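Fig. S4 source data, part A: sequence.
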Amino acid sequence: MNSDNSTTAAPRAQPSLPAVAEWKAAIAPYTSPSTGRAVLQLLDTLGPLVALWYLMSVVAPISLWLAIPLAALAGALLVRIFIIFHDCGHGSFFRSQLANEVIGFVCGMLTFSPFYAWRWEHAQHHATAGQLDRRGTGDVWTMTVQEYLESSRWKRFAYRLARNPLVLFLVAPFYVFVIRQRVASPRMNPRERRSVWWMNLAIAGMVVGMSLWLGFVPYLVLQLVSIGVAGAGGVWLFYVQHQFEDAYWERGENWDFTAAALQGSSFYELPAVLRWLSGNIGYHHIHHLSPRVPNYNLQRCHRSARMFKDVESIGFWRSLRSMRLHLWDEGHRRLVSFRHTRKSRRTQGGGGDENPR
């Protein structure tokens, strides 16, 4: 259902897409996992995390306030650990499936994420990314302009609340990682449901062990800070990967896999430190073309072919502006703001009572 009510701007022209055989040939050399690179990444990620928690155990008895910055750094490392977990879920981190499952479970415990259950939901995200008719699983709630205008006041309020930055990047991550992922979905098969129960047991054991070591209250405070930083950073990265002005959404047979990857998944250019902490996930267009490319190969893959250099990048400051965009305008194929939608509707004589922010 297209909307002509939100903006008068014409859609921006998108670059031509490479043929499927072309991009598959360009990606193929980078889909083979490297045991050496994987082990090195585990060492340079888990090693600093262990060191930070040891420092917290030394500092916290002196002053919990002095330990909180260390917990924040540990949270930043958890983002990188989640990317390792993510790659294990795709079976791309190690050559061995057993190694992927074992390391995936350990990283899942550290990030409060059940391995098989998360893998099941994330697979649906990859299968439906950019498809307007299949929204709702493993993605950020996104309404079209027309859907929003035709919704009840209550649903519009709920949608605006869900897209509020404080809710999206602070409340939602805590709810997802600490609460929602403790409960199995009835749609899961037995293996996914069991993975939730086993992960809950593992997390309980971790909490008991860490509390005996640090004390329950200090551990609780430091763990909440750590998971809060990690959750906010992780959700922010996921948001930027698919929520930008010239993203890609289509219905039915008009949907195209290559377009959804190269036009609907961002190339998020970050400084070297943030690129390291985020496990190169800013090269998300490559990841959606082939989840079999491990994170340590994404940058090299992107640089290997001209077709990827033509993908428009999103810098840090532009990514911040994406927080003002909330609704997909089907008529003009772009994300627009609540305010823009209201002004455009009034200009065209449609009135407006949605009270956008």
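Fig. S4 source data, part B ends here. Residues 153 and 242 are 26 Å apart (CA to CA).
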